[in-house]
TrEMBL record:
Top-level taxon in the UniProt lineage: Bacteria
Keyword set includes Metal-binding: no
Chain intervals for the UniProt region annotation (Disordered): 1-42, 58-85, 773-817
Name of this chain's protein: Tetratricopeptide repeat protein
Amino acid sequence: MAGDERLGRQEGSTGSVPDRCRHGEEASLALGEEPDPAPGRTRLELELDSGRRADVVRELRPHVPPRPAIALSRPSATHRPRRPLADTTAVRPAQLPAAVADFTGREDLVRKLNDRLAACADRPAAIAIAGIGGIGKTALAVHLAHTARHRFPDGQLYVDLGGSGPSPADPETVLGAFLRSLGTPDAAIPDGTEERAALYRACLEDRRVLVLLDNACDAAQIRPLLPDDGAPDCVALITSRTHMSDLDHAHPVDLDAMSPPEAFALFAQIVGQERATVERAEVMDVVAACSYLPLAIRIAASRLASRRTWTVSVLARKLADERRRLDELRAGDLAVKATFELGYGQLDPAQARAFRLLGLAGGPDISLPAAGAVLGLDVAETGRLLTSLVDISLLESAVPGRYRFHDLVRLYARACAERERRAVAEREEALSRLLDFYLATAARVYALERPGDRMVEHLEPTGHPGLLFETSKAALDWLFAEADCLLDCVPKCTGESTRRRTGDLLLGALDLAESGARPRQYETVAQAVCDAAHTAGDSRTEARARSALGHLYSFTGRYGHAERELRRALELDGDDPVVASRASNQLGIVANGLGRHEDAERYLGQALEAFRADANEAGEASALANLSRLHVSRGRTRTGVELAEQGLAIYRRLGAPLRLANGMYTVGIALTRAHRLEEASVHLTEALDLFREARQPLWEGMAHFRLAEMHLAARRPSEAVAHAEQSLALGGLGGEWRRFSFLTVLAKALMAAGQRTRARDCWRQAQALRERLGSPEPEEVRQLLSTSAPDLPAATNPYPGHRDAYGVGPPVTESDP
């Protein structure tokens, strides 16, 4: 806040904080007086500094004819004191700081607050503006006060209460200054906060006065300074880092960062519109690095404005480094870090520890249980600590049970964690507890989704029991809600004591890869674990991480990458039951997809043997399903159906909805190939419903694709078109091979439905994809792209031209979609 204050005095901005009170000379001139004998000092400042009444300062002389003193105050149930009769004049104080000349943004908010001030019926007694340091609270309040001052002709009072500093102003002292500003002689001002507050409220009766209470510490500090029901036409504007939820009759305003357009406008005002417009993209990078915090934007822009040889891109590069960003956001003695220091310095030891350690966690936010794991505290105590940080604007809570830092505050929290005496040990312990929480809970989700799968029994033990879930849906909801935070934790924990658990977390969170929801993020963190384990010579962890990475690559059609990672996993630790079974199973899927049927049969046989040796029934069902797909692709439909039904029987016995959907999906494919189409329709439709309920968009798209094939084979082109279009809409998660297959079956369905123009368009898109993928074009595609080609007969085999959907198309999970 200190930096914010200085910046406001120098230049004035959305993020500025004005002086504690209008300077003596300026305030005296506004009231028609001679300048104060103590230049640059206000009476309130003299009182605040000395701790006693400023009797040495001359009495205010009004610049307007005085109103007659009111002999008696309005009757009150609280026996309000009467205004003093002697020497009382009706003074109209004008203490607002100078208007913010370059105030930017907040138009909608200012308009709404002005409307509230204008409406007599629902006008609040106070408007309490809260937010982190540098967010522009004071600038907003001063701007609002100036736009609304005509509604308060009896004067405007102002005080900086010093709430963000070590010595907040004493309400009794402030009341004394306010009473003098309202025309009360010193002899009539009583001692004691309650007595002064009562007289102050009596003085506000029948007046329309605006009171700006800037930088308040808490509700207790400002309660004596608020007008009460006896002065319904008076309003207090309050700014504070503390949320005043316990303040009666106050309208709360939780001030957030600027919008990107507002941030650009503020930056451009300082550096010049032309200079900002030329490098607009770089300006947006700068304001994003500033997290749209007005103070940070002003500092960054001020640095650039004072360096005419710099380009915006130079500043953007300097701010791109998160570890140095706070140091770069400094201009002279102004610094964002200094603003945050004021808030951190007021924390008690437990709050300060929580603030530091929570900054270590990644992701956009953190849940209450995860925060408890970081701090090593129970949920109740964690909740109390986090609520206290929210109340003073060092933490935000957008939704119940989830918390987040402003981006720059997070960087400051991490810096605090790094400079502590036992920083390294404290950080490692906190992150280890968080990793335990995620691994234990992800393992519970995996086990709930895959009854009978023994992989979780081979994971590293944890010191946290993990969360319990009553339903599979609740478990998956947790996993997807925590996906960003969970994956962000992985690369932070690749040290000696935590590395094995990170490799296991990748396997426990495999649903994130299978759903297609986080493919790039999952790939990045898996590669980070592979690299760290390889450097450390940790073959077990590297093998498991490469198995997870190969699993992901096979989803997205990157067959060469998938095969390389999976084979490397087996070379590293083929004796690990997890790697021996899962990597072999996935290699069988990849080999089948590439048309190498003998290799596929060998790998799948090894997988089936490894799953059975480990008594892993869910894994056994998966291997059977994949063997079914292999038989079907080789034209052995009878044994293909039998193997699929064996796998489905196991899934039914285990009772896992998502795995049951996998089993039905596989049976549906085999039955379609066996031309048992009505049975296939039942299985595929039920699988589709289960995939949709489990929030598996990739699998959902594949089920639509298989239903399109089935309806095309059944000579129902309209139904085939509908399902093919759905598959294409959901197919972006499956890679270009699957998109090729979806376009092919849609083209066939459209041709069979007589929609030749649309069909040709689909074929052309399919041809372009095929050429980009570097594969020979099927004869069928060439024929159907010919303008003289006849309509595709409804009885034509639907499979040529997209046989890769069975083989070449990328597998999506343990059983190839």
